[in-house]
Write a structure and sequence with these properties.
Two copies of one chain form a homodimer. By secondary structure, chain A is α+β, with helices and mostly antiparallel strands. Chain A contains five helices and six strands, in the order αββαβαβββαα. The longest helix of chain A has 13 residues.
Chain lengths: 176, 176
């Protein structure tokens, strides 16, 4: 862990900054994510769908995984590792029953996005040189107001993704 | 119900046909949906995200709701009723635990898209004149091979959507 922390700190020194503008909706905060200097990518809410998921437990969310053009192209071709320029965005919402839908069905069956959780927005940014110390990926996490998570949160990203090394550290598979 | 069936039959007679080509993935079948003559829209898998959901019970799916440009524009502006030209696509996958993700977390927590269910792909197509008898919406449903559902299935679409009349018969809200 000490070694990882050191490497992440070293990456932070050389990390660049991505210019951010307001997406169609969602956070617009201009503060850069700590450690890797990644800002919210403009237009991420317009990116194409990679997949969806539900996480139980502490997360208890519904999530959509979107990709920029490079990400979608790589996913559809099955390209591994992902090429530099790939950006994957993970949006999450709290997992709540839809009372209006359930009324129609006559039973509890429909779960929909509720409010944005603290971990609303995450990015994985592929740059094999810049982020060499973390598998070629830069990680960034923001709340619904666009405020980046703290350093401790960011340090947890890569260790958690390491078990997915065989798929270039990316958990999400493409939903056809 | 008799009246609805009659109206749907009447609509079928005047319904047009949409030209279909293969999307980036998913079904490519050329058979038109019965009743309304709607075919699979080309490129629907590239449309932007409206929302995600999980349906329990008999459906037991994870779903993504995508929209064409007209749909996304209307959703973001809060335009109701949706303008003619709006198309909403609903993709669904069976709701399955992700063994590879759960291994990393050390507990059962991650649910991801599995195989495509029989009701894989649905469209709502807004044309207030052509589909006047069903709230201005044409409904179509396809399996993973692009084969349309039967007439009985299609007749169930509008009656089920009627309770959402206040929101122009559309259940899904935009996930910001």
């Amino acid at each position: 862990m000490k070694r990882i922390a050191f490497l992440l700190a070293a990456v932070a020194v050389v990390a660049g900054v991505v210019v951010s503008t307001a997406p169609a909706s969602g956070p617009t905060h201009e503060e850069a994510a700590p450690i890797l200097g990644i800002k919210i990518f403009p237009g991420y809410r317009d990116w194409r769908l990679i997949s969806v998921a539900h996480e139980e437990g502490n997360l208890n969310d519904l999530r959509a995984i979107l990709g920029n053009d490079a990400a979608i192209k790589a996913y559809r071709k099955g390209t591994l590792p992902f090429p530099d320029g790939t950006i994957i965005a993970r949006l999450a919402w709290s997992y709540v029953p839809s009372e209006e839908n359930n009324k129609v069905f006559g039973r509890n069956q429909s779960f929909v996005p509720g409010s944005a959780p603290d971990w609303y927005l995450q990015f994985m940014v592929k740059d094999s040189k810049k982020y060499a110390a973390t598998g070629g990926w830069g990680f960034a996490e923001f709340d619904k107001d666009g405020k980046p998570a703290d350093e401790a949160m960011h340090k947890a990203c890569f260790p958690c993704h390491e078990p997915a090394k065989a798929r270039d550290f990316v958990f999400t598979r493409y939903a056809p």
